Amino acid sequence: MIDAILIDSDTTVLHLFDATSGGAAISSGTGRSGGASLRMTSNGVFCTKNIGSNVGTLNVAFAWSPSSLGSIGADGLFDLLDSLTAQVSLKVLSDGTIQAYRAHIGTLLGASSPGAIVGGVYQHVEVAVTISATVGTVQVWVNGVSVLNLAGQNTKNTTNTTVSAFRVYAVGTATHDFCDIVWKDSRINDRRVECFFPTGAGSHTQFTPSAGANWQNVHEVPPDDDTTFNSDSNVGDIDSFAHGALSASPLSIDAVIVQVRARNTATGTGSVAPLLRSGTTDSPGAGVALNTTYADIPHQVLTTDPNGGGAWNTAGVNASEIGYKKTA
Questions:
Q1: 225 and 108, same structural domain?
Q2: What's the CA dihedral at 266, 272, 278, 279 to 10 degrees?
Q3: Residues 179 and 35: beta-carbon distance below 8 Å
Q4: Exposure on the CB side of residue 183, measured as CA atoms within 13 A
Q5: Is 143 a domain residue?
Q6: What is the rounded distance in angstroms from the CA atom of residue 276 to the CA atom of residue 257?
C-alpha cells in the first residue's frame, strides 16, 4: 500500500482532503520544491485524510515548515485516527522537542531530545505507528534521522487496533506549510510528490469534447468542472493523454498515481476507471460508480511499470499516458 496527496493538482482543500475545520488553503509557490503547499495559519485549524482502509501499522511522511517554534502553542501537530478518534498524536514544543501521546495529547508515551524540529525551514518528517495495547510502537524520523523510537507501548486508545485516517494541525500563531504527503505500510524515506497534467492527445481519443481538443478540457488547475469537459455513453471508451516530464531523474520511483475527477451526467448507473498506458499496455484501475456531482475518484496507484512489470524509471514515466475508461 502506498498513496499520496497531489497538492499541486487542485486549489480547493476539500477536493484533496476529506475534512477540514476551515481556515486552510492551498498556497501556490510555497511548497518545498517550488510547487504548492497546504497552508494553515490559525491555531486549531486541521485537515483530515482517510487512507481507504483500516491498518494496524502505518507510516505517514510529509515535508513541514513552521514559520517559527516560539509561537507553536500547546496543541498537537499530527494525529493518527481510528475513524475520528486519535490513537496516537504528536506534539512539538518550542525547543523543537517531539512528544508522542496516546490519544490526542492524552498520555505521554515519550519524547525526543530538543532540537529535533527547527522553525523557518522545511524538514521531512516520517511517523511510523503500530497500534497495540501492549506492544505498540512509535518511531519518528526527521530528515532521515531517527529522533524518537518507542517500543512496548500502549498505543490503543479505542476498541480497535487499527487506524484509518490521519490529521495535520496548525498550532499557535505560526504559519504551517505541508507538502509531499505520502502514506505507506512500510518505511517511506524522503519522497517528493510531483504532479503532471495532460499536454496533448495520447493513443485514445474516444470521449466527446465539450469544445476543442479532449486534452485541453482536462488540464486546468483548478479543475473547472462543467466549463470544459469530455463526456461519453459507450462502455469501454478511453481517453489517454501525453503529460509533462519529471523535473529530474530520481534514484527510485515508488509509484505512479492517476487521479481523475468526474461525475455522472445521465440518470442511472455510470462508472469510470482511471487509466495508465505504458508502451502498448492499457492498465485501467477499478471502475468507480459516479455521483451526479463532481468528485475525485479513488487513485489508481501503480508501483511497477505495466510495460514489462519492472520498477519504474524516468523514461518509462515520461513516456506513459494518463487517462480514464468508461466502465459502466
A1: no
A2: -50
A3: yes
A4: 18
A5: yes
A6: 9
CATH number of the domain where residue 224 is located = 2.60.120
DSSP 8-state secondary structure symbol assigned to residue 21 = -
**Grid coordinates belonging to 277:** 498506458
> Look-up: residue for cell 510531483?
194
Together in a domain, 99 and 206:
no
User: What is the domain extent for residue 226?
Assistant: 198-326
With contact defined as beta carbons under 8 Å apart, do 26 and 177 qualify?
A: no
For residue range 314-325, list pLDDT tens digits in order. 999 999 999 999
Mean pLDDT of 227-237: 96
Burial class (CB in 10 A: 0-12, 13-18, 19+), 100: buried
Q: Is residue 289 classed as helix, strand or coil in its secondary structure?
A: strand
CATH number at residue 6: 2.60.120.200
pTM exceeding the 0.70 threshold for the entire prediction: yes
Helix (H, G, I), strand (E, B) or coil at 20: strand
pLDDT tens digit string along 67-120?
Answer: 998 777 667 889 999 999 999 999 999 999 999 999 999 999 999 999 999 999
Residue bearing cell 490521519: 166
Whether the bond into 274 is cis, omega within 30 of 0: no
Q: What local confidence, expressed as pLDDT, does residue 70 receive? A: 78
Looking up cell 516530464 gives 245
**CA 300 to centroid of chain Cα atoms:** 12
